[in-house]
Amino acid sequence: MGKKMSVIIPCYNTEAVVHFAINSVLSQIHDDTIEIIVVNDGSTDSTLDILNTIKKRNESIIRVISTENQGVSSARNLGLSIAQGQYVLFLDSDDRIKSNALVDWLDFTSKNDLDISFGGIEIYALTEPDTPIGIIKNIYPHSLNGETMLINKLFHKLWICTGNALYRRELLMGNNIWFDNKYKYGEDSCVFGKAIINASKIQTLNSIVLEAYERGESAMHSLTFEKYLDAFAAYEDLRTYVESKISTSSIRRAFDYDYLNLYLSFAKILIRESPTYKSDLFDPMGILPKPSFRLFWNKKSLEGLLFRYFPKLYHHIALIYYGHEKI
Fold it and tell me: N or C: which terminus of the chain carries fewer CB neighbours within 10 A?
C-alpha cells in the first residue's frame, strides 16, 4: 500500500523537545501508510542520538536524514524531495500534533479530495504547557478555491502556518514550489501562499490540529530590523508570483492590507529596540514603500494613520498596549 502522508520534521539543536513532536505523530499512527521524515540539520547537541534511539524502535515508520547545517528551508526541501506520501505535513520540532487529530484529518482530506486542508491552532508557552495562551479556531463553513483562501489569509481571517496544513504533494512538486533558503524569515508564508493560489479545493476541519509552543522568547521578539527585511522580500516574492497568475482588485487589496500589517511590524521592532522615543527612530523604514493607510478604514488602518501623523504618540501607545516584553 502506498504512503498516504509524509510528516517532515526539520530539527536543529532541539534535544529537549524533539521527542514530543515525533511522539505526537507516532502515537497516532496505526499502520504503514504514514511516514515520518526527520531531517537533522547539523545539530551539535544530542538531538541526533535521540532521533536514532526513536528510529530503532520504529524502523518502518521513521527515516532520519542528517546533513550539515544549511538552514530550515534546505531541511524541509530535502524532506519533501524524498517524501512518498500523497500528502505532506511540515511540523516544527518544538510543536505537536493535537491528540487524536491526525487520522481524522487525513481521512477528511482524502475523502474530500482536497489540495490543502487545515485546522485550528492552540498556542502554548513552554513554561506553562498545560493551558493554551491563545487559540486560532480557523472556522469556515465550506471549501474554498485558491484565490478566495489567499484573500482570507492575507486579510488575517484564516491562518495557515507550519504545522496546521496538509498539502497534496503533487501540488507542490508539480508547481515547482520549494522553500527559498535565502529567506531566514517569512520563507514559510511565501511557500504556503504559492501553494494556496495553485490549489483548486481547500477546506478546514473546523477543529484544532496543532499545538504550537512559543520559544523561550518569541521569534518576533528576537528579530532585528535587518533580519525582518527578509519578510518584506518574501512578501514581494509572493505578490509578484501571485499577480503573474491572477491580478484582480480583490487580490491587490488583500496584499495591500497584509503589507500594512507587515509595515507596522517593522515599527514595533524599532520601538522594541528603542523604548525611548527619538525623532529619527523610524528613519530606517524610509527604505520601505509606504502602505495605503486610508484604504480600509478599520482598526489596523487607524493604527497606520496614528503612526504616520503622530509617531511619538504611536510609540507611547504601542509600549502601553503591547508591553515592551511583548513587542
Answer: N
Torsions phi, psi for 260 (to 5 deg):
-60, -45
Strand pairing partners for 122?
Answer: 135, 211
> What is the per-residue pLDDT across 191-242, written as a single tens digit (0 to 9) for each?
999 999 999 999 999 999 999 998 754 444 567 898 899 999 999 999 999 9
Dist. CA 137–CA 205, nearest whole Å: 10
Asked if 26 and 58 touch (Cβ cutoff 8 Å), the reply is yes
Give the whole-angstrom CA distance, residue 327 versus residue 318. 8
Which DSSP state fits 326?
G
Using DSSP bridges, classify how beta strands 202-214 and 116-125 pair: parallel, antiparallel or unpaired.
parallel
Q: Would you state the cell numbers that stand for residue 41, as one nine-digit string?
A: 540539520
For residue 259, give the nearest of 281, 243, 276, 278 by alpha carbon.
Answer: 243
* Residues composing the chain: 327
The pTM of the full predicted model, rounded to 2 decimals, is: 0.93
